[in-house]
């Protein structure tokens, strides 16, 4: 699979601009095209006050959004060659991202994400989580202060369950092949000697699915998966953390745990969240 069309949600914040920087380098490396999306909605106080949303008010929001988008193109002149026509829509961000991604049949969504240190950051994190849970398209979430663009080592935290065919992890395989990256398969358990036969069988199948891709296995004993992930990323120079949230709520745990807030802010590792392949 090649990445032909990538959706980039932008709210013109520093976090969104940082994700856009990453997306531009991604597009150059994969020869893909970018679609910038800006979603706006009428402020809640206006709705509570019963103010009628007329065409002029909506036009004002659209004009302002277009002006901001034009400034973005001036700030990032590479977009002239890399981007398709941008999209502006009146909707809540997460709904707009999911709907636009489906309607345009994009191959990937690249979006910025903050750690949840305040109410605004919590909203951004929730938007990302909502998109991942509702969309059948892979999402690459870029931390707000991330500046590294190479993809050489991907950590896939895996529970040795529910991978019944190669198609299940095809999005991960495609992503790794696009960059010639190495996949680190990591399993954390409370007791290494309790690894059941089913898990061993899953590992053998995984070995077949990843044939031709450089990969290694790492098993660790511990009760806290987030802590193990953080330590492994720091000691193995991991560039991307891959998760498959359809099979468990790991992604939600990653966003909600205090350890992962530390992961996002200090280790600066993007998360590649992909749905179960069909």
Strand order of the largest sheet: 3-2-1-4-5-10-9-6-7-8
First CA to last CA: what distance?
14 Å
Please summarize the sheet with the most strands.
10 strands, mixed
Number of helices: 11
As a percent range, the share of helical residues equals 40-55%
Number of β-strand runs = 10
Beta-strand residue fraction = 15-25%
Q: Helix- and strand-based class?
A: alpha/beta
| Mean pLDDT metric | 80
Element order: H for helix, E for strand: EHEHHHEHEHEEHEHEHEHHE
- Overall shape: it is elongated
Uncertain regions spanning at least 5 consecutive residues:
115-123, 258-266
Give the radius of gyration.
Answer: 20 Å
Describe this structure in words.
- The protein has 278 residues and is an alpha/beta fold.
- Helix content is 46%, strand content 20%.
- Strands 3-2-1-4-5-10-9-6-7-8 form a ten-stranded mixed sheet, with helices on both faces.
- Strand 4, helix 6 (119-134) and strand 5 form a beta-alpha-beta unit.
- Helix 10 packs across helix 11.
- It starts with a strand and ends in a 5-residue tail after the last strand.
- Residues 115-123 and 258-266 have low confidence and may be disordered.
Helix/strand layout:
Elements: E1 5-9, H1 14-30, E2 33-40, H2 44-48, H3 55-75, H4 79-82, E3 87-90, H5 93-104, E4 108-113, H6 119-134, E5 139-143, E6 153-157, H7 170-179, E7 182-189, H8 197-209, E8 215-221, H9 225-236, E9 240-243, H10 250-256, H11 258-267, E10 271-273
Parallel strand pairs: 1-2, 1-4, 2-3, 4-5, 6-7, 6-9, 7-8, 9-10
Antiparallel strand pairs: 5-10
Helix pairs in contact: 5-6, 9-11, 10-11
